[in-house]
Amino acid sequence: MSPEALRKNLQVVFDTVLRRNPGQPEFHQAVHEVFESLGPVFAQHPEYIEGAILDRIIEPERQIIFRVPWIDDAGRVRVNRGYRVEFNSALGPYKGGLRFHPTVYSGIIKFLGFEQVFKNSLTGLAMGGGKGGADFDPHGKSDNEVMRFSQSFMTELSRHIGQYTDVPAGDIGVGGREIGYMFGQYKRLTNRFEAGVLTGKGLTWGGSLVRTEATGYGLVHFVCEMLKMKDQEIDGKTIAISGSGNVAIFAIEKAQQLGGKPITISDSSGYVVDRDGIDLDLLKRVKLEERGRVADYAALRPGAHFVSGGSVWDVPVQIALPCATQNEINREQAATLVKNGVQLVAEGANMPSTPEAIVTFQDAGVLFGPAKAANAGGVATSGLEMQQNAARDSWTFDHAATRLEQIMHDIHSSCLEAADRYGSPGDYQLGANAAGFVKVADAMLDQGVV
Ligand SMILES: NC(=O)C1=CN([C@@H]2O[C@H](COP(=O)(O)OP(=O)(O)OC[C@H]3O[C@@H](n4cnc5c(N)ncnc54)[C@H](O)[C@@H]3O)[C@@H](O)[C@H]2O)C=CC1
Ligand SMILES: O=C(O)CCC(=O)C(=O)O
């Protein structure tokens, strides 16, 4: 197929995405970003066009939307909307997190599910891709309210999931507490202790050591691999991190263990600069025990200051690790980071950089580690949790941590190999998309038109 015919084919499929998914810009963005990388892949693999892989891969295998009624502490009936998008099962059971956040709607869940398909493929483990969640805001809710909501959410979700079907986990707003309530309800509804139905479980009832830390640790391992290619180390480098949740906290922990110096955290109300380096014990206390805000951290930490509003990306650093949410770095913020001398950006959050921000980094020669590859350590360790559950085993911390580090090393190599093979040496974005896509596409061809 000529390059022109190929371009037209991609455009026709993308037009279908726009037509079938109106008003869902995040999903359009995620699909467009992958399509941009696939020209050279199709040039080498015309069988993917003939097999209509693209036409199929953009359509979720199943989308479930449901009512989640629950009763708040005042006795009032409340109603939220729940989602599970089972995107692609070519490589294994659907796998991906659940997000509880007021901004959740179909477009967010679909973009996350689409990304998850390729990310899970990159891990080398047998996992398809899916994502779910609800427009429920856990902030300001009591434990009992979160429990009643999680139980009601699981009452419907339980019909659609299972260790061989679909295995949810956490994401924004869903951590160990929520997974516990959901697992309890699933067990009660099914009368089965089916450990492999959810990951991110408590350590005494089927959870894996290192799953809590895995996304942040994996991100830093990926950064170290990127730096190694330039004969550099993380030791001594200043780091800006956004967010202050699961991914941010454990990225800070691993970076500090390796001598890096994270100096920022943020949440939706603003950011904190702590030039002496983030005090991790204090951060864990404020965020994980007290469920506080970053302003509370600044109030307790001499020398740190809280900036209300503004952008954490104004702070001059050598490495930037966005770990909060989608589209949190736009073109101007990327340009500020570049102007201030950033050398490396790696995405802990899903799709945190807008397309214009990515181009800004790439044009400036900044090393750019895309989310699909850089934050895959979380879901990879979920895959390791599923392995332990299947074997009724539980590994030591060191064993799970070593497996995680090896997987991140392998993902890094796969990205660079694919970037070479498809004509853009050193381009992690193209490499991640191409390597993730090819495995899923081959499996889909093997499995026929389904
Ligand atoms: N938890 C996991 O294993 C994985 C999470 N991710 C992604 O990492 C990101 C963070 O997730 P988690 O840390 O798990 O969630 P979390 O709920 O533990 O933390 C989210 C953090 O982001 C902050 N945040 C949310 N919206 C914000 C905004 N508009 N501006 C600034 N800060 C904001 C919150 O205040 C919170 O500190 C998300 O994009 C998620 O999809 C990616 C891979 C795996
Ligand atoms: O561990 C999992 O299954 C989910 C992780 C996740 O949601 C993600 O990679 O974005």
UniProtKB/TrEMBL annotation:
<dbReference type="Pfam" id="PF02812">
    <property type="entry name" value="ELFV_dehydrog_N"/>
</dbReference>
<protein>
    <recommendedName>
        <fullName>Glutamate dehydrogenase</fullName>
    </recommendedName>
</protein>
<feature type="binding site">
    <location>
        <position position="116"/>
    </location>
    <ligand>
        <name>substrate</name>
    </ligand>
</feature>
<dbReference type="InterPro" id="IPR036291">
    <property type="entry name" value="NAD(P)-bd_dom_sf"/>
</dbReference>
<dbReference type="InterPro" id="IPR006096">
    <property type="entry name" value="Glu/Leu/Phe/Val/Trp_DH_C"/>
</dbReference>
<feature type="binding site">
    <location>
        <position position="246"/>
    </location>
    <ligand>
        <name>NAD(+)</name>
    </ligand>
</feature>
<keyword id="KW-0560">Oxidoreductase</keyword>
<feature type="active site" description="Proton donor">
    <location>
        <position position="131"/>
    </location>
</feature>
<dbReference type="GO" id="GO:0004354">
    <property type="term" value="F:glutamate dehydrogenase (NADP+) activity"/>
</dbReference>
<comment type="subunit">
    <text>Homohexamer.</text>
</comment>
<dbReference type="GO" id="GO:0006537">
    <property type="term" value="P:glutamate biosynthetic process"/>
</dbReference>
<dbReference type="InterPro" id="IPR006095">
    <property type="entry name" value="Glu/Leu/Phe/Val/Trp_DH"/>
</dbReference>
<dbReference type="Pfam" id="PF00208">
    <property type="entry name" value="ELFV_dehydrog"/>
</dbReference>
<feature type="domain" description="Glutamate/phenylalanine/leucine/valine/L-tryptophan dehydrogenase C-terminal">
    <location>
        <begin position="208"/>
        <end position="448"/>
    </location>
</feature>
<dbReference type="GO" id="GO:0005829">
    <property type="term" value="C:cytosol"/>
</dbReference>
<feature type="binding site">
    <location>
        <position position="119"/>
    </location>
    <ligand>
        <name>substrate</name>
    </ligand>
</feature>
<dbReference type="InterPro" id="IPR006097">
    <property type="entry name" value="Glu/Leu/Phe/Val/Trp_DH_dimer"/>
</dbReference>
<feature type="binding site">
    <location>
        <position position="382"/>
    </location>
    <ligand>
        <name>substrate</name>
    </ligand>
</feature>
<dbReference type="InterPro" id="IPR050724">
    <property type="entry name" value="Glu_Leu_Phe_Val_DH"/>
</dbReference>
<keyword id="KW-0520">NAD</keyword>
<dbReference type="InterPro" id="IPR033922">
    <property type="entry name" value="NAD_bind_Glu_DH"/>
</dbReference>
<feature type="site" description="Important for catalysis">
    <location>
        <position position="171"/>
    </location>
</feature>
<feature type="binding site">
    <location>
        <position position="170"/>
    </location>
    <ligand>
        <name>substrate</name>
    </ligand>
</feature>
<feature type="binding site">
    <location>
        <position position="95"/>
    </location>
    <ligand>
        <name>substrate</name>
    </ligand>
</feature>
<keyword id="KW-0547">Nucleotide-binding</keyword>
<dbReference type="InterPro" id="IPR014362">
    <property type="entry name" value="Glu_DH"/>
</dbReference>
<dbReference type="InterPro" id="IPR046346">
    <property type="entry name" value="Aminoacid_DH-like_N_sf"/>
</dbReference>
<comment type="similarity">
    <text>Belongs to the Glu/Leu/Phe/Val dehydrogenases family.</text>
</comment>
<feature type="binding site">
    <location>
        <position position="215"/>
    </location>
    <ligand>
        <name>NAD(+)</name>
    </ligand>
</feature>
<dbReference type="GO" id="GO:0000166">
    <property type="term" value="F:nucleotide binding"/>
</dbReference>
<dbReference type="InterPro" id="IPR033524">
    <property type="entry name" value="Glu/Leu/Phe/Val_DH_AS"/>
</dbReference>
